[in-house]
Design brief:
This protein is an alpha+beta fold. It has helices at residues 13-22, 82-89, 138-152, 164-178, and strands at 2-9, 26-38, 44-52, 55-56, 60-65, 73-80, 96-109, 112-119, 123-131.
Length: 179
């Protein structure tokens, strides 16, 4: 599977929420994520544990390849069940790289997912994500993101070039260096 994603920090998620609602977005869910990132040779692998309304869902594993950068990023990813992940990456526990905990609001707007993420230890972010499909090209996805980015304009900071795991890892390195 493939998606196009873009992310920026926001200091006032209530304004973002009101703006996307006014544009016609529908609140789909609020989730609690615990993402465990593992050290793998190729790409990024994470185990996502989700709690929705107090209910724990079966963990899913996501393996993805995505370059860093402030422009909308193209991500190639594969979803695995726990059994499939064990078959693909081995039955022995993989070395854990970093843990990311976040509360995620999911808003849907014409095929675009708007995530308002409150990430423990980092702050609040807006992430825009569109799946690439046979009927929706990469350039169409980029256009959808560009239109929403323009509308969000002054309510978000500069784009974030890295994923949450890399940002958390940088925070941990910085705090270890300071100690």
């Amino acid at each position: 599977m493939q998606s196009v994603e873009w992310k920026a920090e926001t200091r006032d998620p209530s304004i973002v929420r009101a703006l996307v609602r006014r544009m016609g977005a529908v609140h789909a869910s609020t989730l609690e994520h615990v993402d465990t990132y593992y050290r793998v040779i190729d790409g990024t692998l994470l185990k996502r544990e989700i709690v929705t309304d107090g209910e724990h869902e079966a963990p899913e594993y996501i393996h993805y390849l995505r370059p860093n950068g402030v422009r909308p990023r193209h991500t190639r990813f594969t979803l695995y069940s726990q059994q499939q992940a064990s078959e693909r990456f081995g039955a022995h526990p993989l070395p854990v790289w970093v843990l990311v905990e976040k509360k995620r609001e999911v808003w849907l707007l014409d095929g675009l997912r708007v995530h308002i993420d409150d990430v423990k230890g980092l702050g609040t972010f807006v992430e825009l994500e569109v799946l690439v499909t046979p009927g929706q090209s990469i350039s169409a996805c980029e256009g959808m993101i560009a239109r929403l980015r323009a509308a969000l304009g002054p309510f978000v900071s500069e784009p974030v070039a890295k994923g949450y795991a890399e940002l958390i890892a940088l925070e941990l390195e910085t705090s270890e260096d300071a100690a």
